[in-house]
Structure formats: C-alpha cells, structure tokens
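*** Fold description ***
***
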Amino acid sequence: MRHVVLFHSVYGLRPAVRAAADRLRAAGHQVSAPDLYGVPAADTVEDGFALLDKIGHDAVLARARAALRDLPPETVLAGFSMGAGVAGALLAERPEAAGLLLLHGTGGAPDAVRPGLPVQLHLADPDPYDTPDEVDEWRQVMLAAGADLTVFGYPGVGHLFTDPDVPEYSPDATAATWPRVLAFLAAP
C-alpha cells in the first residue's frame, strides 16, 4: 500500500479531510493529513481565504514541507482544492513521488513532472476556480510533460463536492470519486 500526504483546502483541517484520511487508512494506506494553518478550521470559504492571507502562503508551504520531512520519497502527494495546489507546488521537491492526487483543483507544473508520473484529477465541471480553458491548458501541458494523467469531471456539482459540511456537497459525485481514488492508489 501507499504512503499518502493529504493537504486540506483553504477552509483548514476540517472533518471531511480527516474522514478522507480515515477512508484511505481503512484501505490499507498510511496517511498523514497535516494542519497547514495551526488554528481551527474556517466555517466559510471567505473566512478560509482570510486565514490563508493571515498565515501566508510561504508559511503554509513551509508547514507542508515539514509534514513531508520524515515521509518516504515515494509518498503520494494529494490535496483538496488549495491543498491540491500545495501538493503540486511540492512535486518539484519530491521527484520520486509515487503520484499526484488532485481533488477539487489542479496542481503541478510540467517541469516537475517525470515521464509516467501517475496524476489523477477530480474536478467540478465546470469549476468556479479552474475554468474549462484553464483545465484544458493544464491537461495539455501535463500530458506533454509525460504525466500519466486521468481527469474526472463531475457535471453540475459545486467546487468542494466531497465535503458534506459545505453547500456544494454532492453525495452522488462523492460516491463516484472515492472508488476511483482507491483504484488510483492501488495501481502499481
């Protein structure tokens, strides 16, 4: 099974992230879900962005790096929304990562992708933070860089559709997401 680091969204370390980590652990994976804020999670996306602004992007990345310090080089980098961006940003520093799992947001730069790197994206279709044109451009550059990329779009859902505590939650899209995630993590 895999080592997985799961970075939270702009809301902070919410119950949905802990539940996702537990779901992956139940499938046999070793999962770390670090708190990149160090304060209670926000109740609204606006409050989450205010927390991010207060803490600072550099501090968030430093905390993510610290969380990875003792994890094996082949740890799968994963994240929700903002956390997907964090996972993607750290890919260049973790060239042996076993994969990049992106939930609710794109991440990763083509110069950090090694040929054959497994990448899986789960995204609302359309997503308010990643427009269709941006997703198409991202997909093209990731494929050109050699990523083994799979993109799952979920029509008619909101951005953070796997979090049951936000208005965008979609039970059907969530039910479709997790078997795909587990299959991705189980792949050799």
